[in-house]
Amino acid sequence: xxxxRPYSPGDRGPEPGGASGVSGGGAxxxxxxxxxxxxxxxPGSSGAAAGRQIRRLSFEGQSGVVPLAxxxxxxxxxxxxxxxxxxxxxxxxxxxxxxxxxxxxTNACLHAEGPDQLTLTCDNKVIRLEVTDRGTGQPAPRxxxxxxxxxxxxxxxxxxxxxxxxxxxxxxxxxxxxxAELGAPA
Length: 186
What we know:
There is one protein chain. This protein is α+β, with helices and mostly antiparallel strands. It has helices at residues 65-79, 88-111, 154-161; strands at 27-32, 53-58, 115-122, 126-133, 164-168, 176-183. It contains three helices and six strands; from the N terminus they run E-E-H-H-E-E-H-E-E. It starts with 26 loop residues before the first strand and ends with a strand. Mean pLDDT is 76; it is low at 1-26 and 31-49.
């Protein structure tokens, strides 16, 4: 686990346009190259073909946040061409993203008073998932991992499926952002 590198390595060029991030319920946004987010329902601006795309979902006032987060992520994967998957490997990559989103949001619900925001960032190589919450705890896989026991598998799953993951805290601000990165399908 890396807790010191808040951003993934590699090319982070300008973002191409994407479909709107609106999902039933939460306030969703598209942003171009990490810039100012567009209002919900307004597509992001166009950019270079090899750029990154960002979507944000606010959980403020929402219930059923885990299925909401999965639906929002599924819509983004469709807009970004991950779904529908043409091969079994591509389908598995998309399912891994959905599972990790579920685990991160569930952990925020169970251990951090609920999530505040989900941010998805995608480029040609990596998808980065970020869940922001107001919790003070430090997520970590349980050791030793006991596969036969119920519960306690969330961060173990995240650790196994992701290229990297970590926690970012802003000094003087309550809460944290738990992030995870997965490789884009070939």
